[in-house]
What we know:
Elements: H1 12-18, E1 20-24, E2 27-31, E3 36-38, E4 43-44, E5 48-52, E6 58-64, E7 72-75, E8 78-79, H2 82-99, E9 105-111, H3 121-136, H4 143-153, H5 157-160, E10 165-168, H6 175-181, E11 184-186, E12 195-200, H7 210-220, H8 224-244, H9 247-266, H10 277-291, E13 296-300, E14 306-310, H11 315-325, E15 330-334, E16 341-342
Parallel strand pairs: 7-9
Antiparallel strand pairs: 1-6, 1-16, 2-5, 3-4, 5-10, 6-9, 7-8, 10-11, 12-14, 12-15, 13-14
The structure holds ligand DP6.
Amino acid sequence: MPPELTESCASADEARECGATAVAHPNIALIKYWGKRDEELLIPYVDSLSMTLDVFPTTTTVRLTPTAEGDSVTLDGSPAVDGERERVVAFLNLVRTMAGRAEPAVVNTRNSVPTGAGLASSASGFAALALAGASAYGLDLDPTALSRLARRGSASASRSIFGGFAICHAGRGTGAEADLSAYAEPVAVADFAPALVIAVVNAGPKAVSSRAAMRRTVDTSPLYQAWAASSAVDLADMRVALRRGDLDAVGEIAERNALGMHATMLAARPPVRYFAPETMAVLDTVARLRADGFSAYATMDAGPNVKVLCHLGDTARIAAEIRRAVPDGTAVIAGPGAGARLRPRAEP
Ligand code: DP6
């Protein structure tokens, strides 16, 4: 369902009182975004395709504070620091420019997923901030425009505007043309609701941010261009597999795409390696489950955690096997979730 912007605040006075609260969920890419061709506008090199999850929501409130000296940003109850704060303030500046307004804001964000651990907190985070920020500053954006705005915070966030499956177009050209043509939209999938078992083997922040890692990969990895070309083929194959509701095909394509992405990083100079020993233990478990006849396929993002695509009916068994392989880890079961939405205002 498209997000509703009915809570827009038309005037500064109204906005001060109402603000807006949005909820968004992370998404996991089945065809990965890795590498930017424009670092300022966050224009990806490749198209990507994801499933929005029904777990780990981010809830963000943006309230305008016309008399304050600057923005105030709180993340999980503590003031946001350094890079985190700068990213949010830069994003608010963009929203203010679009809205032709200048008031500072108070931003309050609660993540239910560890931040910066390759569990897509920036996707849910900037999708929620885009929706709450646009609404608080009175911007009337359709879902496409909202996905373009979310992309400016984190390119994967453009996909979390939508529920279910979404594609993010890498767009074409440069400058304004690229900005206009790089957006996300839903992918229609008939009667297909796979599950993901998320193996959280290490919830700590990653050593290299995905932003730095993808820059290094594009700049130095001799494998990057080859992966980008093969990813276009993976995407076409994935769309067919999703239309057919063929979980084994979807899983095979997702796994090869993710492993290819990690291969580009391993070949970067210096290399970027997100695999931990526990990551390998989960990958071994997935291979064994498959040999035993289960439909189980792995995908990984910029971190050591593994997401296992499978049938809903197999999740309990797969989660149990993962816990056995990595006793200190946890396994969270997810399905397709809803897109970003505004939370109705509480009655006074
Ligand atoms: C590996 O969207 O976090 O999860 O645009 O620099 O904020 P920025 O990067 P981000 O990168 C996500 C990369 C990925 C793959 C994916 O989600 O498509």
